[in-house]
């Protein structure tokens, strides 16, 4: 074989190796980006799940607050309507500090 042919094959081999390295680097970078994109999508999916759980709990919270409000207004109304309740002591100028009784 001639010296020129060997140099040509050597240069061609180096170019093929360089192209393979560049292509491999590209494929590896693309795979990393896809993997990181999946991690981000999974994290946002977890956020969406937590937000949905919170949204599902809001009606229960509203009903609980309504129940407590109803109970508190009933207790307050009974206290104000009973003899010696707050409504009758309101005109004493704060001097009457009677004990609360059930």
Question: How does the SSE layout of this entry go?
Answer:
Elements: H1 3-81, H2 86-89
Structure in words:
This protein has helices at residues 3-81, 86-89. With 102 residues, it is mainly alpha-helical. It has one domain. The N and C termini lie far apart (113 Å). The protein is rod-shaped.
Describe the structure concisely.
The chain is 81% helix and 0% strand. It has helices spanning 3-81, 86-89.
Strand content: under 5%
Choose one word for the global shape.
Answer: rod-shaped
User: How many strands appear in the DSSP assignment?
Assistant: 0
Total of domains: 1
What are the low-pLDDT stretches, counting only 5+ consecutive residues below 50? none
What structural class do the secondary elements suggest? mainly alpha
Task: Write out key terms for the chains shown.
102 residues, mainly alpha, 2 helices
């Amino acid at each position: 074989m001639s010296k020129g042919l060997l140099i040509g094959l050597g240069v061609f081999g180096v170019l093929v190796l360089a192209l393979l390295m560049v292509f491999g680097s590209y494929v590896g970078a693309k795979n990393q980006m896809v993997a990181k994109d999946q991690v981000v999508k999974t994290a946002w999916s977890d956020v969406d799940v937590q937000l949905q759980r919170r949204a599902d709990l809001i009606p229960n919270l509203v009903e609980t607050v309504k129940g407590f409000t109803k109970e508190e207004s009933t207790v307050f109304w009974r206290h104000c309507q009973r003899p010696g309740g707050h409504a009758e002591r309101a005109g004493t100028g704060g001097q009457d500090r009677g004990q609360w009784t059930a």
